[in-house]
Design brief:
single chain, 141 residues, three-stranded antiparallel sheet, 4 helices, 17% strand
Length: 141
């Protein structure tokens, strides 16, 4: 590159406003088709597990509590997910969707990357069974 062309670029960019956006301070609305965090509606789920079978990165796990009563828990590992929406396409009952509002998923700790969806009673029973301990009751001061 010649020095004249380089100096021309430098002088042109001196009088232009910056092209960067002030992201954390000024947020723009997310696009409608943005693929963010997975949203699960347990009332529509039948436990067919097509979403877990079709997930290319094994980010979804369906845990059956009671098949006759249609009680299921979904464990979603955000750190494994590639946000390809294959699970949403595979779900025949419309219980999965990718949110375009919750997409800022960065964290320093690993704990927030494993999400468990389901009713509170099912979650407490499952956690008590897996840990072998009784769930502690929350005490309010």
């Amino acid at each position: 590159m010649k020095i004249g062309a380089l100096l021309g670029d430098v002088f042109r960019s001196l009088f232009k406003p910056p092209a960067t956006e002030r992201y954390p301070v000024e947020k723009k609305p997310a696009p409608m088709r943005l693929r963010g965090k997975l949203v699960y509606d347990s009332s529509k789920c039948t436990g067919c597990q097509l979403c877990a079978k079709d997930c290319p990165c094994d980010a979804i796990e369906i845990i059956t509590i009671d098949r006759a009563a249609k009680r299921f828990i979904m464990r979603y590992r955000v750190d494994r997910c590639t946000f390809c929406a294959q699970c949403v396409e595979s779900c025949r009952f419309g219980c999965l969707d990718l949110s375009n509002e919750e997409w800022e998923l960065a964290s320093v700790q690993k704990d927030p990357f494993t999400l468990t969806f389901g009713s509170e009673a099912d979650l407490e029973a499952f956690l008590a069974k897996t840990t072998g301990a009784q769930p502690e009751a929350e005490t309010k001061p």
